[in-house]
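User: Please predict the structure of the protein below. I'd like the answer in structure-token form so I can feed it into my own downstream comparison script.

Assistant: Understood. Taking the following sequence of 315 residues as input:
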Amino acid sequence: MNPPGQACGPTRGAQRGSSAEDALPNVQALRRTDLLERLGLLALVAPALLLILVTMLLPVGWLFYLSLLSDQGTFSLEHYQRMWEQPSYARTFWTTFQVSFLSTAICIALGYPLAYFLSEIPKRAANLCMIAVLLPLWTSLLVRTYAWLVLLQRRGLINNWGIELGLWDEPLALVHNLTGTLIGTVHVMLPFMVLPLYSAMRSIDRNYLRAAANLGASPLRSFWTVFVPLAMPGLLTGALIVFILCLGFYITPAVLGGGKVIMVSSRIANDIEIFFNWGAASALGVVLLVVTALIILAAARLVRLDGVLGGRERV
């Protein structure tokens, strides 16, 4: 008679082998079900992916293709070489970044106090005030730009009122220059700064400020050490949105700049409408697209949008 260990060993091994063989069809069935589920989800998002391919990837690819075509129709880097050699392109990019940076800085200076005020008043009153912030977005950009042209020109309302009130003797140059461009750009971009700032500030728990006050911090110190760091994601998000939008701004600089403020978008329009040079315009578009993508990638390391939009709102 065999010892119990020897008699049971083969039997248990056979049972384990039988269990593994029985589980194999179940594993295969689960994998098949998971594959079908993934294919079903892919089929659901396929129209959206096709739309993105047609409306975004193909035009961008065509833009890259045109930028590599010379004036004779051969593949060449002459458009990029021309941008590197001619100083006028450097001045254009400098003007573009100057307008974008100054507009962002002014929007921060105006939007931060406004967003803070809206975050401190009751929610119902803040919603009513937010209508005034969003009201310019309901009006055509072209209409708003020409309205500023009427207000800022040499015989406009602002110059006439200033002379009548004795604030200055001669009309000020408020339009067809950098000043007019900044005024119109800030007016358009200010809501895009206020919205993420207000969202971030509204989600801050005020108990943090009370705790800082209980620990002996003054109101100013509590604001700078507690409130400002917590609102920083909203500030960075708003600054990123405003800066990126300003890089491709066209209508306002073209109208209020009077041809003296040449940004990349205006240069692209001139290459197409005046010189019919699609290659040079495409090369400018590619460079601007690459620069914008690099800025977004750099900003993504500093701020996360879900940290701004996913916070708990304070009622």
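That's the full token string. The mean pLDDT is 85.
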